[in-house]
Design brief:
The chain is of the alpha+beta class and about 300 residues long. It folds into two domains: about 120 residues, 60s Ribosomal Protein L30, Chain: A, CATH 3.30.1330; about 190 residues, PurM-like C-terminal domain (Phosphoribosyl-aminoimidazole Synthetase, Chain A, domain 2, Alpha-Beta Complex), CATH 3.90.650.10. The protein is built from ten helices and twelve strands. The strands form two sheets. Strands 7-10-6-11-8-12-9 form a seven-stranded mixed beta sheet, with helices on both faces. Strands 1-2-5-3-4 form a five-stranded mixed beta sheet.
């Protein structure tokens, strides 16, 4: 039902008229110092793709790369314990996994979920006039770089970790209640990269209100101090081909393209249902932010549908 053609968050395969499998895989190197937190973040991030499709996670397989001669297995145990904690919170059963000896630590999961075939949420079902709602603040990529450079405060680190370990389960439940058709999660390609995929898949363009974006405290100062991930700069170069930034500063452009880990859901909702979605999110303990809207497709002089950041 869903393959690689629209760069969606997960693959979907119909098993029967009432059951579709939703499958995804994600793993990465450490982005925080605490091993347990890394495990929690990696698991939440892996689960996020299933939630973005409106599905329920069922099972997980762990993927581990570990430098056995350099780091203790006790430390790996902390990673696995943190990940297992998040899988249990999601109600997903850990079935096993695979590990290799690797010079650089890596950890993540392959996740399988299920959904009714008629209720799959994709990044290619947006429509002109849909309102865009974002469920987590931006800036985790910038703060992860600040952690690596040892310039992040303890408070900033704790806040970013809490954002990244929070499951998108409540956001997924809210959008299912409202009958949302289009969504994606905001991860490595940043807000604008994932919005660009949604625009291309849906045949639309989009307007974003920068001042409406939820941001983690202190990230503008970090960007001004050149604490910026390489991935975010690559994202900005890529999205600049089809994004019109108007008067927005380079700092603001970088933030809008910041490479996220375990970011929130970007939901496109029918305009008359936007208030109901925000209410449903609140009832699920999630703060939703209306950040813009989808529009009729325009190309101007770019290679694809145009995004405009006001």
């Amino acid at each position: 039902m869903v393959g690689i053609s629209t760069s969606d968050d997960a693959g979907v395969y119909r098993l029967s008229p009432d059951v579709a499998l939703v499958q995804t895989v994600d793993f990465f190197t450490p982005i925080v110092d605490d091993a347990g937190d890394w495990g929690r973040i990696a698991a939440a991030n892996s689960l996020s793709d299933v939630y973005a499709m409106g599905a329920t996670p069922l099972t997980a397989l762990s993927i581990v790369g570990w430098p056995r001669d350099k780091l203790s297995f006790d430390l790996l145990g902390d990673v696995l314990e943190g990940g297992s904690e998040k899988l249990a919170e999601a109600g997903a059963t850990l079935l096993g996994g695979h590990s290799i000896d690797d010079e650089e630590p890596k950890y993540g999961h392959a996740i399988t979920g299920v959904a009714h075939p008629d209720h799959i949420v994709t990044n290619a079902a947006g429509r002109p006039g849909d309102k865009l709602v974002l469920t987590k603040p931006l800036g985790t990529g910038i703060i992860a770089t600040a952690i690596k450079r040892q310039v992040a405060s303890a408070e900033m680190t704790a806040t970013a970790v809490e954002v990244m370990i929070t499951l998108n389960r409540g956001a997924a439940a809210a959008m299912r209640r409202i009958g949302v058709l289009a969504a994606t999660d905001v991860s490595g390609f940043g807000l604008l990269g994932h919005l660009g995929e949604m625009a291309r898949g849906s045949g639309v363009s989009a307007d974003i209100e920068y001042d409406a974006l939820p941001l983690l405290d202190g990230i503008s100062d970090l960007v001004d101090a050149d604490v910026v991930p390489g991935g975010s700069l690559r994202n900005l170069k890529s999205v600049s081909r089809y994004t019109r930034f108007g008067e927005r500063t380079r700092t603001e452009q970088i933030i809008a393209a910041d490479a996220q880990t375990s970011g929130g859901l970007l939901i496109a909702v029918d305009a008359p249902l936007a208030a109901a979605l925000l209410q449903a999110l609140e009832e699920e303990g999630v703060v939703g932010h209306e950040i813009g809207s989808l529009t009729e497709r325009t190309f101007e002089d770019g290679p694809g549908p145009v995004l405009r950041v006001h």
